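Bench notes, afternoon.
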Amino acid sequence: MKKLYTIALALVVMLSMIMSAAAFEKIITRENGEAAVASWSTPDGSTFTGLQAVKTKDGTDIFVFISTPTTFKFGSTSTQEDVFSINKKLTTATLSPVELDLFDYNTGEVETITVQAQWTGKGDLIRNSFRFMSKSGEFVAKFSASSTMREATATGSINDDDLGTSNSAQLIAFKSASMEMKK
């Protein structure tokens, strides 16, 4: 009878360990990619234009905004087409002509534009990294990110209207990883 209790207790312990392991949840997310950003303003400072192109394994996302004293327009598009290229040394990047819809915040109107740009890197590479961990009870979250960036100059156009040379521009390569665990 003592052996039976010992076997039953061992089964209960094993079952509780299996249940504990089954309740353990771990999620890991990784993201790698390249980006190019630029901003332009008119000589009198009345119009400010921003452009960002981000390429990851999921495709390319393009964001544009235009701000004037009387309006604010913004828009984005995502595509699987090969419209954005950037070299590994972060010395050049090209955004081929891409159409996207701009939403006018003041009027609610939408207009379709075509945007394109070219970046030329300048200066030294700048490297950054960041790590974060949070633990609360049975929950643990970890995050790490690293990036390499080079200042740049950019030229571009919207609907074939030349934006001139950018006021500010950067070429960026990035990596990030996050992990969440809970019992």
